[in-house]
Design goal:
This protein is an alpha/beta fold. It has six helices and eight strands, in the order H-E-E-E-H-E-H-E-H-E-E-H-E-H.
Length: 255
């Protein structure tokens, strides 16, 4: 009996240590690069609103087809959510309202439903939403669709995967889909994307960024395990913005 108690105490102590280590690690996500601060400031063309989440609202943009379009962005795992500000800001410059979710412990999978707050926000009642996510953020976005099929095609019109793929089969969902990935990705290889194609919506369009890696979808430096990119971070984000813009233009032209 005493030996069982000792074992229980040891197991409990080990679990406590593991929990403390995880929480300490989780509260220290990959930090945004210095340039990110510039993209968290409002300008003549983009209004930045920092609440729990960060909103990038187009200003003084020439009339286009994106007035009723919005993107809800799930950040990558263990990455500070503000590291995606440059991408969101540049999408807003193109007229696309973009919201970056601030998720628990920097892991979107811990709050898959966080997009619901934005969808239900009366300030954006006129929006047709596209979910987007980088790496584990894309997994979380796809899980939202699985949990809320009633919103697919109604409030949520599409999903955008950045160096990511759905964890479960969503090929049956009637939704627009885009997958963008880098040829030099050391975390999620192009080969893996191709192997997972059966899980994506049947409508999915694929864009490979030649020279792009995993880390440069955000602005947080080179992630451990990733390969060095063969193009600059600015160029990679430019390609991402262009691909998303063309994808949304195609959607709006078919409405």
């Amino acid at each position: 009996m005493k030996s069982l108690k000792r074992i229980s105490y040891v197991v409990l102590a080990l679990l406590t240590v593991l929990i403390i280590v995880f929480i300490t690690w989780a509260y220290n996500p990959l930090k945004p690069t210095a340039e990110v601060k510039e993209y968290l400031q409002s300008s003549n063309y983009v209004e930045v609103i920092q609440e729990k989440n960060v909103y990038f609202i187009p200003r003084n943009v020439k009339k286009n087809n994106f007035e009723n379009i919005g993107i809800i962005f799930y950040p990558g795992g263990h990455v500070d959510y503000t590291a995606y500000a440059p991408l969101a800001y540049r999408l807003a410059e193109k007229g696309i309202t973009t919201v970056i979710l601030n998720v628990p412990l920097s892991f979107a999978i811990f709050d898959v439903d966080s997009a619901r707050t934005i969808i239900n926000d009366t300030r954006f009642s006129d929006k047709e939403w596209f979910l987007a996510g980088h790496s584990l953020g894309g997994v979380a976005a796809s899980e939202f669709l699985v949990k809320h099929p009633e919103l697919v095609g109604i409030k949520v019109k599409g999903i955008i995967f950045l160096a990511s793929y759905p964890a479960r089969d969503i090929s049956y969902l009637p939704i627009k889909s885009l997958c963008i990935y880098g040829s030099e990705d050391g975390i999620l290889s192009p080969k893996t994307i191709k192997e997972k194609k059966a899980l994506f919506p049947s409508s999915t369009e694929y864009v490979e960024i030649l020279g792009g890696n995993h880390s440069q979808f955000g602005s947080y430096g080179l992630q451990k395990g990733d390969k060095e990119a063969k193009i600059s971070a600015h160029e990679q984000i430019s390609i991402v913005v262009k691909a998303i813009k063309e994808f949304l233009e195609k959607y709006t032209s078919q409405r």
